[in-house]
Design a protein that fits this description.
CATH architecture of the largest domain: 3-Layer(aba) Sandwich
CATH class of the largest domain: Alpha Beta
Helix content: 40-55%
Oligomer: single chain
Radius of gyration: 22 Å
Strand content: 5-15%
Distance between the termini: 45 Å
CATH topology of the largest domain: D-Maltodextrin-Binding Protein, domain 2
Length: about 475
């Protein structure tokens, strides 16, 4: 019997890790990934069940720490915009009250973050704790084996998802902590009432989606809230649905990673980028999308001015609770679907996410370890779940209570292994590192300064530069 992918997601065990797909640095495409990885997930759950009370005891102990050292110390935590929840910063205040260690959160605009971080790391001036997306780039771009501390034996390690640990590790050594909800991903959140009023229905093809947008626009509502100004969100409209590429062109991911294929000249890749451009050119993003910001997404969705936005399922709670919800929308008035770019109907699986690393050159390593230990406590994890709207669970098993809505459960349960796949940035080498550059190119395309061919050529050129810098033999 086909295993439901929801059983993996909702337990916080991300079975579709790159290692499970056939090797840390040579991933295969998304086709078949779920079925190959599922036994590993079942084995993990079986081991957890065997642990019984002992497993729970270990989970409860995760985050226990020596609070008697480090008082008076200040540690810096540098991260990109939207990577540190307000609730985590509140935990930082509680941590200081308990330990006397102050946490200086240095939040950097997304379009500046990677360059600034790499400059500091390369100059030997890294922050005590630095953030990065887990996955391929840790070894190629961020050189974690030199720039980060081994966290494999920390007190929270037994509670940390082994699949997340594979994404924050290199050669079996874990260097990081993914402190982000990887148990769900970004999907299209839509307003059912606005859809009904316009005569729109949940689309399964691109032509149906365009028809929906036309109907919604004619009803006086802007179809899609797309915050291009942040410099990171718009690319997700493609990549969070790009698992379809390896389904319609089996082997393309493997060929890209072996430098046997390119983005430029690939008909399906061009079609996807052209379709994304179509949304902008037809005005479906509204008049101010180039200056719209992600922080305003829930409010605009609550206002009824927009019918759709790519968000985490947990964001629906914030939409409903917003002061801009003057129409009295309830959670039942919103639903989820995958964006059918290139007619995609496969659920996006995304086990990587913003993670924390301790700088190997830090003078405050012990204090930084105490901080990570503190935020991994059961009460800390629960605090983030309870107070961050887009967080329904975390990749830690410390006895917390997840906050999955029935809608989230039902949505995920409607996809099995065969109809799920890994997102593009998690399976293609040298792609995620240029995330901000690709977003900038897409924005340039929207205003006519670039074509879809230019966008794809840019991806290839930067991949070549990154691969050669990493000494990848496939690019010699």
């Amino acid at each position: 019997m086909k295993k439901k992918i929801v059983s993996l997601l909702l337990t916080g065990v991300m079975a579709l890790s790159l290692a499970a797909c056939g090797g840390a640095m040579e991933p295969v495409g998304s086709a078949g990934a779920a079925s190959e990885a599922a036994p590993a997930a079942e084995e993990s759950k079986a081991e957890s069940a065997k642990g019984g009370d002992n497993t729970e005891a270990k989970a409860d102990d995760a985050g226990a720490q020596d609070s008697g050292s480090g008082a008076g110390t200040t540690i810096t935590l540098m991260a990109s915009q939207d990577w540190v929840e307000d609730s985590e910063q509140e935990l930082g205040k509680k941590f200081e009250e308990e330990t006397g260690i102050h946490v200086d959160y240095q939040i950097v605009p997304a379009d500046q973050y990677q360059d600034l971080l790499l400059t500091r790391l390369n100059n030997g001036e890294g922050p005590d704790i630095w953030g990065a997306q887990s996955g391929f780039a840790l070894s190629t771009t961020y050189n974690v084996t030199e720039n980060a501390v081994d966290l494999s034996n920390e007190d929270w390690a037994p509670a940390y998802s082994k699949f997340s640990a594979e994404q924050t590790g290199v050669d079996g050594v874990n260097y990081g902590l993914t402190y982000y909800d990887t148990t769900t991903d970004y999907y299209i959140v839509y307003n059912k009432k606005l859809f009904d009023a316009a005569g729109a229905t949940v689309p399964t093809t691109w032509s149906e989606f365009i028809s929906d947008c036309d109907k919604i626009a004619k009803s006086g509502v802007t179809p899609i809230y797309e915050p291009v100004a942040d410099g990171w969100h718009v690319l997700m409209l493609w990549t969070e649905n790009a698992q379809v590429h390896d389904k319609i062109e089996p082997g393309i991911i493997d060929k890209l990673n072996k430098n046997e294929a390119t983005f430029a000249g690939n008909a399906n890749m061009k079609k996807a980028v052209d379709q994304l451009n179509e949304l902008a050119q037809k005005g479906y993003f509204g008049d101010n999308y180039m200056s719209d910001e992600f922080a305003d997404a829930e409010g605009y969705m609550a206002s009824g001015e927009f019918a759709m936005c790519m968000l985490k399922p947990g964001a629906i709670k914030t939409i409903v609770a917003s002061d801009m919800n003057t129409a009295g929308y309830t959670e039942d008035d919103f639903g989820l679907f995958v964006l059918p770019i290139v007619d995609n109907q496969y659920l996006n699986i995304h086990p990587t996410g913003p993670s924390r690393f301790i700088y190997s050159g830090s003078k405050n390593i012990d204090a930084a370890k105490q901080y990570l230990s503190y935020i991994c406590r059961k009460e800390s994890v629960q605090y983030v779940i309870d107070n961050a709207a887009d967080v329904e669970n975390m990749p830690l098993e410390v006895g917390q209570t997840p906050e999955y809505s029935n809608m989230t459960k039902e949505f995920l349960a409607s996809y099995d292994d065969e109809h799920s796949g890994m997102v593009l940035q998690d399976v293609v080498l040298y792609f995620n590192e240029q995330w901000m550059d690709i977003n900038a190119d897409l924005a340039a395309m929207f205003i006519g300064d670039m074509t879809s061919d230019d966008v794809l050529k840019g991806i290839d050129e930067r991949r070549t530069q990154l691969a050669q810098a990493a000494g990848d033999p496939n690019w010699k």
